[in-house]
Design goal:
The chain is of the alpha+beta class. It has eight helices and 15 strands. Helix 1 crosses helix 2, helix 3 packs parallel to helix 4 and helix 7 crosses helix 8.
């Protein structure tokens, strides 16, 4: 709208309004009087253009997109803290209990013990917000002295930590909320409420899956993996703590009996045959081949909630392998021992098993 409101165009229009019998050449009195005003007007038009872009959800960003979405009850997801499982042992390798509130560190990331699971096993919450708490595994070092503790291990992710929501993710949720209004326990209502829970990446809703009033919601984590049972239990408590009673004590409306379930991971072992460029060896490309295949399967998992059934395709896996430097041809790829595509169930996601590369 304001693209043509440049300094040159504004100045030209201003000078056109001055009679031709007046000197309008550069450096003249009238030119020097108009030029600063034209410059300021051009800057003002540029600012108006920016403000116009920020006022609409499809072009807004940052704080302005957050405020626009919030008008419709869609709030930007803030960064959350990962919850992990920690195991603690004495010098004899026996499980020991550690104080609630004790702190531990690994690679400049710190965790605090929040609750006990069983002897020697505790839930640890990352003290830094975001996905950083999902990325480390291994030996923990106590920040403060813990009596009798000889070894500590950081284990499974119980609830993934999330980074602050991106503009594009918020924009898509906002558009969906406007175009598919959530109301009274419809499918959109369940999707919006469950995906707003920390650690949830997406959900599929199966209405009346066991008769009237029953709803099943299958969940995948924000790391695009199957959630652990502890996370499923927490979501169940949030949505419908009484599950089969329909008392409306959670997010689910009265009369709805909701079952929360995890996605089912299906391990795919892959065997493939490649031709290599001169001077290359299998060892030089094996890791890269595994990485590109994992990237392909990860993209399928990210789209799990948007499609009915995921299909792992041999042709696309071979195409991904061909992007690896040094690989000049690929053939004979099999998935789980079959030379065909694999179609997964509605609640299944593909995970990578072994990758065997033959030359």
């Amino acid at each position: 709208m304001y693209e043509n409101q440049t300094y040159e165009n504004i100045l030209e229009r201003m000078l056109d309004r001055v009679p031709d019998d007046v000197d309008k050449r550069e450096g003249s009195v009238i030119y020097n009087a108009c030029a600063p005003a034209a410059w300021e007007l051009a800057a003002m038009y540029a600012e108006l253009g920016i403000n116009m872009e920020l006022s609409f959800a499809d072009t807004a960003s940052g704080e302005y997109l957050s405020r626009r979405a919030a008008e419709f009850g869609v709030n930007r997801k803030q960064a959350s803290k990962a919850k992990r499982k920690g195991a603690f042992f004495d010098a004899n390798g026996q499980p020991i209990d550690v104080p609630i509130g004790s702190r531990y560190a690994i690679e400049n990331i710190s965790f605090i013990a929040t609750s006990k699971v069983e002897a020697g096993s505790f839930i640890l919450e990352c003290e830094q917000s975001g996905s950083i708490g999902n990325k480390v595994f291994g030996a923990l070092l106590p920040i403060d002295y813990v009596e009798k503790m000889a070894r500590a291990e950081l284990g499974d992710i119980l609830v993934p930590g999330d980074d602050i929501e991106s503009d594009e993710s918020l924009r898509q949720r906002y558009i969906k909320a406007v175009n598919e209004p959530a109301f009274g326990g419809n499918v959109s209502d369940y999707i919006q409420k469950i995906t707003a829970i920390d650690g949830v990446g997406a959900t599929k809703v199966f209405p009346v899956w066991k008769g009237g009033g029953t709803v099943k919601c299958t969940v995948i984590t924000s790391e695009w993996t199957a959630p652990p049972q502890s996370m499923i239990d927490d979501i169940q408590t949030t949505v419908d703590p009484t599950q089969n009673n329909g008392n409306g004590l959670g997010l689910a409306p009265i009369g709805h009996s909701v079952t929360i379930a995890p996605v089912n991971p299906v391990t795919i072992d892959i065997v493939t045959k490649i031709a290599l460029d001169t001077g290359m060896t299998v060892g030089q490309v094996e890791e890269d081949i595994r990485d590109v295949i994992e990237g392909y399967l990860l993209n399928l998992r990210k789209n799990w909630a948007k499609i009915t059934n995921i299909v792992a395709r041999v042709a696309l896996i071979e195409a991904a392998i061909l992007t690896v430097p040094g690989v000049i041809d690929v053939s004979g790829t099999t998935l789980r021992g079959q030379a065909n595509n694999i179609t997964l169930g509605e609640e299944e996601i593909p995970t990578l098993g072994t990758v065997t590369v033959n030359v």
